[in-house]
Amino acid sequence: MILSGKEIVKHMGKEIIIEPFDRSRVNPNSYNLSLYHELMVYDHQELDMAKENTASTITIPAEGYVLQPNKLYLGRTNEYTKTEGYIPMLEGRSSVGRLGVFIHVTAGFGDVGFSGYWTLEIFCVQPIRIYPDVEICQIYYHDIDGEYDTYRTGKYQNNTGIQTSMLWKDFRK
């Protein structure tokens, strides 16, 4: 089952942490997260799964930044989240999707115990101006049935910034 907005609020500060938290961003069954003021873009057009790919940082000014189609941008949420006993899930907001901006299309499934900022995969179908602090996506929570292992360590746990893919580490096992 997905937690209702009221249940999210009920578990805040215990099993669910969102910092900073703004009650006005609570929806019937999710919470809106906002975009940090930086993006990253990979430095090369051809990427390699088996190698670390370098990326450059772009600061989004207050007057906005125009995203270009067919280019992958990595963003980050302003909000730090931590979850115990629930599965965090991330989706783009429908209002953003209706402008042709796709947020976190392939990797919205979090792990029980995830702690950190969410790196967002951002892609658009036509040029669009985006702004820092815009409510760009929403987090929601599934309960979990049965025994489970809590995510405590991993490539993306306890992150503080935008993270490029670390898939290359899987090739070193």
From TrEMBL:
Gene3D superfamilies assigned to the protein according to its UniProt record, in alphabetical order: 2.70.40.10
Pathway(s) it belongs to: Pyrimidine metabolism; dUMP biosynthesis; dUMP from dCTP: step 1/1
Pfam families documented for this protein: DCD
A biological process term (GO) from this entry: nucleobase-containing small molecule interconversion
Record: active site: E121 (proton donor/acceptor)
EC number: 3.5.4.30
Protein family per UniProt: Belongs to the dCTP deaminase family.
Keywords of the record: Hydrolase, Nucleotide metabolism, Nucleotide-binding
Annotated protein name in UniProt: dCTP deaminase, dUMP-forming
Functional description taken from the UniProt entry: Bifunctional enzyme that catalyzes both the deamination of dCTP to dUTP and the hydrolysis of dUTP to dUMP without releasing the toxic dUTP intermediate.
Positions of the record's site feature: Important for bifunctional activity: G108, F109
Quaternary state and interactors: Homotrimer.
Reactions mediated catalytically: dCTP + 2 H2O = dUMP + NH4(+) + diphosphate
Binding-site list for dCTP: R93, S94, S95, V96, G97, R98, D111, T119, L120, E121, Q138, Y151, K155
Molecular function GO terms recorded: dCTP deaminase (dUMP-forming) activity; dCTP deaminase activity; nucleotide binding
